[in-house]
Structure formats: structure tokens, C-alpha cells
Amino acid sequence: IMLLPEHKFLVDKVGPTERTQDGKHEFQTIVLIKPGYTNEFGEKVGIDDEYECRAWNKTLVEMPVIKHGDKVNVVLNLQGRKWIDKDKGDVYYRTELMIRKLSLI
């Protein structure tokens, strides 16, 4: 797991709190937006970057209630996984962003 520096985002979507299939963990999926670049005239010229992130267990309980449009400071963990389909021998990779800390601005 790699800890990323704190960044400012806009909250786009906040999913419901869910449980893992085994019922041992709670999580919430949140989509964050990093607004695109604006030029010296204030015109937007870059595209927004959108990130699907998850808040888990203790972090989920400790963070404030958020909604679409909120401005937030977020510290993220970047986690990469690899797995192999044993039947086909195919290799798959997955990158996940997990919210470590979130606060309203």
C-alpha cells in the first residue's frame, strides 16, 4: 500500500454503506473529482479527473457525512493487486484508491 499526499477534491457521488460478502467489513464507494485546468481567463481548458475510491471500516466511521458538491481534503492509499485465473492462466491487475482520511474544507 502506498500513501499519497493530501489533495483537494470535489465530491461527485456518495454510495450507500455496504458490507463485504462475509459481513466482516463495511465500506462506502465515493467518486471524487479533481477539476480540470483553467487558463488565465478562468476558462476551463482541461478535463476533470474522476476517481472511484472506497472508505473502509474505521475510516468510514470517523469521516464526516458528505454529499455531492462538497469540497474535501483527502489522503488516499494506492493499492495494487495481481491475480491469476488458474483455469485459463490469464493474469489480471487491479488498482484501488482507498480513503485514509477525509475532511470537509
Instruction: Give the helix tally.
Output: 1
Q: Biggest sheet: strands, sense, closure?
A: 5 strands, mixed, barrel
Got a strand count? 6
SSE run? EEEEHEE
Our estimate of the beta-strand percent is over 45%
Distance between the termini: 26 Å
Output the strand order for the largest sheet.
2-3-4-6-5
Let me know the average pLDDT: 95
- Which structural category fits the helices and strands? mainly beta
Gross morphology: globular
The percentage helix is under 10%
Q: Give the radius of gyration.
A: 16 Å
Regions with little confidence, pLDDT below 50 for 5+ residues: none
Report on this structure.
This protein is mainly beta and 105 residues long. Helices cover 6% and strands 57% of the residues. A five-stranded mixed barrel has the order 2-3-4-6-5. β5 (71-84) and β6 (91-104) form a beta hairpin. It is globular, with a radius of gyration of 16 Å. The mean pLDDT is 95.
